[in-house]
Please model this.
Amino acid sequence: MFFFILFFRRLYSLINRRFIWTGLLWLIIHAVFAQNPSAIWYRQPARNWNEALPVGNGRLGAMVFGRAGDELIQLNEASLWSGGPVSRNPNPGVARYLPEIREALFREDYEAAAKLTQHMQGLYTEAYQPLGDLLLKQDFSGQPADYYRDLNIKNATATTRFRVNGVNYTREIFVSAPDQVVVVRLTADQKGALNVTAAARSPHPVTKSAVGRDELVIRGKAPAHADPNYVNYNPKPVIYGDSAGCKGMRFDWRVKVRSTDGTVSTDTAGIRIQNATEAVLLLTAATSFNGFDKCPDREGRDEKQLADGYLKKALTKTVDALRKAHVADYQRYFNRTSFTLETALAVNLPMDERLKRYAEGGADPELETLYFQFGRYLLISSSRPGGPPANLQGLWNPMVRPPWSSNYTTNINAEMNYWPAEMVNLSELHTPLLTWIGYMAKTGRETTKNFYNARGWTVHHNSDIWGASNPVGDKGKGSPSWANWAVGGAWLSQHLYDHYLFTGDKKYLQTYAYPLMKDAALFCLDWLVEDPQGRLVTAPSTSPENVFITEKGVKQSVSVATTMDMGLIWDVFSNVIQASSQLGIDADFRKTLSDKKSKLFPLQIGKSGNLQEWYKDWQDEDPQHRHVSHLYALHPGREISPLTTPQFADAARKTLEIRGDGGTGWSKSWKINFWARLHDGNHAYKLLRELLKLTGMEGTDYAKGGGTYPNLFCAHPPFQIDGNFGGTSGIGEMLVQSHDGLLNLLPARPDGWATGEVKGMKTRGGYELDMSWKNGKLTRVAVRSALGGNCRLRVTSALKSDGKTRLQTAKGTNPNAFFQQPENRYQTTKPETPANGVYLYDLATEPGKEYVLLGV
Model:
């Protein structure tokens, strides 16, 4: 970029300024943005939603299409969902089926067990809703030329530029978190050339009204209920009326002209701005959502007052002040972490062409680092403290019945959204999920009681803004293979504990996380039963969305003790044991968990050398199924590791080889994390390249559909944001791992990343790392310690002190309590076991200090 600026400065000094300045400035800006590695840019408008560009502040979201004459900006508000508080006992009396199911399972009548299990289902979740569209109709004659649009993830701003009849038009759009408004700035470089109408529409019934000459107000209600998109048996899948006055939240959104030098008039058809050079529109919205357990209608908040308050506050600021506050707020998160790789030649192409070139085998390290940062951008834009967690599509959704209701799919996808949060230095943005776990636990305690006569809490396959926790399926219409998976509470508890391990916040652990983790473990204690050999198993048990073939050749999905179930229970028991020890409480409960943990049904290696997925060594209906749920113990769990359980790590590797590298977008993302945990950087990198395969496909091909849309959204297909977050997490796992009792630096660096630098990565134990490496060897490592304690490093190239830091060869077990390893019956080696080309160091750290190490 520097060379472009220098070139044009010299050219500028040689040419008559009066005649060429406007066009030259346009070329400079265009060239600079095209070379900006933080900009995702294009030569044409979006043809569809998967080419539009996402902006958001965690609560308000917009998809910007970049059309010249008829711009479309699709809008969302994070709390706008169908429905209302869940029924806490939607299918009374179904607990009576549980003993019958278990009896059928232990006599190996899996078909009867599945039919009985199907009775134990409740209602479907509700659906995340679109707010509406802002339509900008711009009047001009002639065809646009010199078209350019981008999303700059360095300042979270979308820009569109084009020229018509010698006039250069610019649109700049950002969503401010400090001021809770969408800002749309329209400019023309010739006085009076800007003529535009801003209109609004919504898929929901709305009323529109003009307020004064420059404001449009749109009010309506979300549906009282919306069926999932895959339910096709109801004559009215979307219902707006609710006679009880409970379901169906209200919304209010407003568009106002902040400033313009043109004339303005408004009616219900829209806001008309004429003969202007510049116009700034402010857009905001609010809903009546008042909490997961409050009727959004009769007990709702005053959405009108909320929207009016946001708007009035923003109107006190100039557009420059709004932008400055927005950029400062965004960059305080984004600038914490950077990742760069050695680049032989920058790739100066629009993103669609760039992805195509990459898919054809072209080298593009900047695209890989941009994808890592794009995941961070999406999390900052869709998950902010105080709001709902990022859902299946983050914040962005144009459909009343979106794919899978755009809900929280808790058998993998909701968790995957937050895998990168702690490691990429966005810990605060993890809190929306952590808070929502508490709401799900409140409904989950009643679910476990009503469905299973059990204590504690859990969540099943799906949840929503109302904290749904029951098995879905509409009381028997869903397949048990997904609807009746019962251990979501154990998985979510891992997030509660990981947040503590990264932050060291003992008050949070004691007052919030530990009680929830303990109750999740309590459900697991009640859920476990003894099999005929006296081993503790789950029954009924499924491996999400997968099907096995029995010895008799019959396809079934319900059995006992699936490997995923047992891995999740091992994990929650281990975490509660460690947390109670850290807090010095619940010694008796800790012993109970330890005793039960030793009796859990064991991990098994099958006849093909793979980690078994099922109770028996059954064949899969689909050997290359997209879910690889039984490898939870490898990632994000920690029961299996090459450093501690090499035999089972080899079995996990064999499982992945049998599963293959195909699958949907999020499935490929999970596999990147798996291969990184196996310390196979080249295989992880292969899958990263495949994840970035350009696709414009619509529909769902579970085996071959995965890839990336032109706007960098992950294609399931259709779009699911978990694939983006899982990809960022996978890159993070390639760079640093901290789950094995030490900090493992560059554990899965692929050959293609021979030289690079990463700054601001976080690890368990409260450490923040900067690392640079050249030709595969570390050249500098900076460790910043927030909590103090022994920092143990595992590296594949020797390090030395910078002269100020005392570095020692590691000895014995790591004394740092944050790196305590759970008791593991499969462990045969220690993380500190010497290996060829590996160095292990101990670094005594104090809170608030930085320690620098250099390559030898």
Observations:
- The chain has four domains: 49-82+126-335, 350-425+661-731, 454-458+474-660, 756-814+833-855.
